[in-house]
């Protein structure tokens, strides 16, 4: 059960309405998902979260949009966020994720989870070659 009520456009203050309008423009869709509707209980939090999401997920950067969605899915799985797994899997499909890519992603997530747990359980020390400063290359 949600901890906040889902807001509707008709009951929004002008700040929330502006964010919802920007979401619609940015995504080219009239659909405002439940996450944003529930976050709308606090206009400032909605504004700042949408601005960060837009800056990170929409603005051009070194990562292409599909790669960003794949990373988002992996982090959402690791964090146990079912909502984000579903919404970002749908977004990845819209951005061109194939079934083969989805299968590869799940294999990587599964392997990373397993090896992370094993390395943690064994308390394996980090190899010095991996413990480097940014910009420093080691063989």
Protein traits:
139 residues; mainly alpha
Low-pLDDT residue spans: none
Average pLDDT works out at 93
- Number of β-strand runs: 0
Helix fraction bin: 55-70%
Number of helical segments with 4 or more residues:
6
Report, as a whole number of angstroms, the end-to-end distance: 52 Å
- One letter per element, helices H and strands E, the order comes to HHHHHH
Categorize the overall geometry: elongated
Task: Give the structural class.
Answer: mainly alpha
Portion in beta strands: under 5%
**Biggest beta sheet attributes:** none
Radius of gyration, CA atoms, in whole angstroms: 19 Å
Describe this structure in words.
- The mean pLDDT is 93.
- By secondary structure, the chain is mostly helical.
- It has six helices and no strands.
Topology:
Layout lengths: L13 H14 L6 H6 L3 H16 L6 H15 L2 H13 L4 H24 L17
Describe the structure concisely.
With 139 residues, the protein is an all-alpha fold.
